[in-house]
Backbone:
């Protein structure tokens, strides 16, 4: 017997991103546009609050659901920003990043054999998360022709009518696609018609450049069937502090908290103090970072346009998702670009169905590097 | 935010952005950028473009001092008149009227402490309206116009991440 690896774990291949990471690590002159986290540090006020909490010796657990003050601040923040109304006592759970929130939610809601429709291209952990929870993932590809927005038809033709849950993420990693309230309405309609619960990862909500964020939970009849995820990693550049939260009706939050209290106990205390300060005093820093991302986004889109590379106008997160400009597969192109020009981009297939033939290009990198990377990209495709 | 505001933010961040890059980042054409810059310059909104230099990293000795000035006014002489007279000296790099215990805060530059001292004692102190000067020599500059000097900005992120 010994330590046999479980069937579930064996069925999940390692991330396709891993191989590119190893290739990129082999040389030291690489400009990486393959990074999925901000290049900024967390605002100083938030870091200072973390240091202060350590100096005061606040190193114990917090309540399972997180510091009440933080949950109250989150409740106020999501109401101000996104018109979401969640009670700090009963409907908000602070977690160790959105990753833990998604994992705990899947384990709380999925029974063996339940189907979870996952909108793709998608962040790489959703499908494995469904499998680890004992569910069956159903991939729902989106298309460039729809600017990678989810449509009623895409759900229908993927056979999502029989799904129990729908996992989606807008603004989207890896495509940078966003969806307006109007565009979300048919998705909501589909979920109401077929009694499907929605898991909405809104970690990039703050990073939108042409629209205000709309949460699907604000649409009629959706609040009671939706779990909203958000966190501090992207907007506040706090990835390494690992802090996110889930918001859902009381009984669902209680169920997610059941998994969380046994699996995690509580989110990191130091990070909770940093997050509290981030919500209290860092709006200006967030705005400055958003402005900076927007300039880089326009720069990168303009450069691809000048090179004649097809790239739909991504309006959120910090990614654009151009088509591979040659006949090669995304993987072959990305590997060649990395070996010959020292520029790392992630092939779109790593993010699931619908990603093939595309590259994820992150602009969470300073303008000087972006300028140089675009010049090298241009040199590579004109050789 | 208007395109003009966008351009101003970009130039404050890096005055060496090329017209082409400014156009790419603002969704304007290069001609529109040129025209907007010409307007900003002729209106005096953009008064100049300068580099931020950390002189400590060069062989040149540049001595900077911050000088607090108290002045007296009379019917014929206002703050503006005194400021105009002081600002004409090339050694005066910044001159501001401020609230508080003194009237003007002046930043002065010279090639040695002696140089700066002579300038204050022979050119500034004798101005009839100036009643007191307090000179603070700058020992080290940590941050200048929003740019941290000696900043370690190594990117320690994983080179590829999801």
Residues:
């Amino acid at each position: 017997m010994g330590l046999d690896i479980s069937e579930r774990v064996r069925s999940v291949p390692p991330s396709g991103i891993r191989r590119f990471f190893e290739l990129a690590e082999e040389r030291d002159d690489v400009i990486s546009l393959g990074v999925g986290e901000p290049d900024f540090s967390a605002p100083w006020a938030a870091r200072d609050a973390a240091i202060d909490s350590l100096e005061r010796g606040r190193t114990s657990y917090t309540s399972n659901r997180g510091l009440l003050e933080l949950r109250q601040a989150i409740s106020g923040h999501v109401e101000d920003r996104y018109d979401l109304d969640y009670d700090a006592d009963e409907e908000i759970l602070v977690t160790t990043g959105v990753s833990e929130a998604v994992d705990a939610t899947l384990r709380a809601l999925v029974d063996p054999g339940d189907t979870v429709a996952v909108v793709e291209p998608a962040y790489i952990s959703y499908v494995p998360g469904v499998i680890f929870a004992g569910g069956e993932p159903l991939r729902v590809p989106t298309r460039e022709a729809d600017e990678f927005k989810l449509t009623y038809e895409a759900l229908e033709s993927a056979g999502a009518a029989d799904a129990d849950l729908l996992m989606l993420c807008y603004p989207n990693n890896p495509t940078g696609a966003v969806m307006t309230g109007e565009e979300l309405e048919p998705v909501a309609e589909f979920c109401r018609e077929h009694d499907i619960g929605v898991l909405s990862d809104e970690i990039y909500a703050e990073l939108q450049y042409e629209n205000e964020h709309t949460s699907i939970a604000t649409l009629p009849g959706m609040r009671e069937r939706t779990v909203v995820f958000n966190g501090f990693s992207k907007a506040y550049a706090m990835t390494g502090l690992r802090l996110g939260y889930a918001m859902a009706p009381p009984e669902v939050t209680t169920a997610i908290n059941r998994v969380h209290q046994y699996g995690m106990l509580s989110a990191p205390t130091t990070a909770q103090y940093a997050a509290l300060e981030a919500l209290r005093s860092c709006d200006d820093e967030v705005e400055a970072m958003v402005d900076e991302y927007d300039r880089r986004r326009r720069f990168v889109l303009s450069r691809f346009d000048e090179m004649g590379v097809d790239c739909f106008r991504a309006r959120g997160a910090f990614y654009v998702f151009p088509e591979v400009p040659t006949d090669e597969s995304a993987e072959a192109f990305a590997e060649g670009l990395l070996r010959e020009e020292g520029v790392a981009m992630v092939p779109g297939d790593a993010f699931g169905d619908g990603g093939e033939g595309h590259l994820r290009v992150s602009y969470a990198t300073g303008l000087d590097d972006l300028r140089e990377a675009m010049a090298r990209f241009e040199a590579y495709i004109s050789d | 935010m208007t395109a003009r505001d966008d351009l101003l933010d970009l130039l404050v961040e890096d005055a060496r952005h090329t017209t082409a890059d400014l156009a790419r980042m603002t969704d304007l054409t290069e001609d529109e950028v040129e025209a907007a810059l010409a307007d900003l310059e002729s209106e005096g909104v953009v008064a100049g473009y300068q580099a931020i230099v950390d002189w400590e990293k060069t062989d040149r000795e540049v001595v900077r001092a911050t000088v607090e000035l108290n002045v007296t006014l009379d019917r014929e002489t206002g703050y503006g008149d005194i400021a105009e007279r002081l600002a004409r000296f090339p050694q005066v790099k910044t001159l501001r009227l401020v609230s508080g215990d003194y009237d003007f805060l002046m930043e002065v530059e010279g090639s040695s402490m002696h140089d700066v001292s002579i300038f204050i004692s022979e050119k500034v102190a004798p101005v009839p309206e100036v009643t007191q000067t307090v000179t603070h020599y700058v020992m080290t500059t940590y941050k200048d116009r929003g740019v941290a000097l000696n900043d370690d900005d190594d990117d320690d992120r994983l080179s590829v991440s999801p």
Summary: The mean pLDDT of chain A is 96.
